[in-house]
Write a structure and sequence with these properties.
By secondary structure, the chain is an alpha+beta fold. It contains 4 helices and 5 strands; from the N terminus they run βββββαααα. It folds into 2 domains: 69 residues, Aspartate Aminotransferase, domain 1, CATH 3.90.1150; 75 residues, no CATH class. β4 and β5 form a beta hairpin.
């Protein structure tokens, strides 16, 4: 990309999009997202569309919501990030897990937090294998998945199908 006037035309070879052909790094990009508000995305040409992929990553609640900006801003000032690995966590993670257990069916008493749906699906496969091993069913390794469907970007779940 040479300058702002070229936006929406060509991507240089430095950018490789997930699931793209690596050999196809020099290519035209028909929709270069410049801004977003509510459920809408606006491209570099000013075209406005509904973001039907919003659940793909982290914007299921919409873009640019003033109420969320305020809450997130307060939280970032207090604690912008803390991992929850091994024996370390933070109060909001504990509170979220407790609240989730309150609204789930009886018997679902534990919550594994993850960074994405890909991580969640990967964790599910690990827990499934662990469960089968400790219950004396180590041969149970098969998982049913939709062919050519997206189940995540991690190698374990991406390998379930030919997406």
């Amino acid at each position: 990309m040479k300058d702002a006037a070229d936006r929406g035309t060509t991507i240089g070879s430095a950018f490789v999009a997930p699931f793209a052909q690596i050999a196809d790094t020099e290519r035209t990009v028909p929709f270069l997202i410049e801004s977003a508000e509510g459920v809408h995305l606006t491209d570099s040409s000013g075209h406005r569309v509904i973001d039907a992929w919003s659940g793909m990553v982290c914007v299921g609640l919409g873009y640019g919501r003033a109420d969320l900006v305020e809450v997130l801003s307060d939280q970032v000032r207090t604690l912008s990030y803390a991992h929850s690995l091994y024996d370390t966590t933070h109060p909001l993670a504990l509170e979220l897990c407790d609240r989730l257990v309150e609204v789930t069916p009886a018997g679902l008493d534990h919550v594994a937090l993850s960074m994405s749906g890909s991580d969640a699906a990967d964790t599910l496969l690990k827990v499934l294998r662990y469960h089968n091993n400790v219950t004396g069913q180590p041969e149970k390794k098969h998982v049913i998945a939709l062919d050519r469907a997206y189940h995540g970007a991690n190698s374990m779940v991406a390998g379930l199908t030919h997406f």
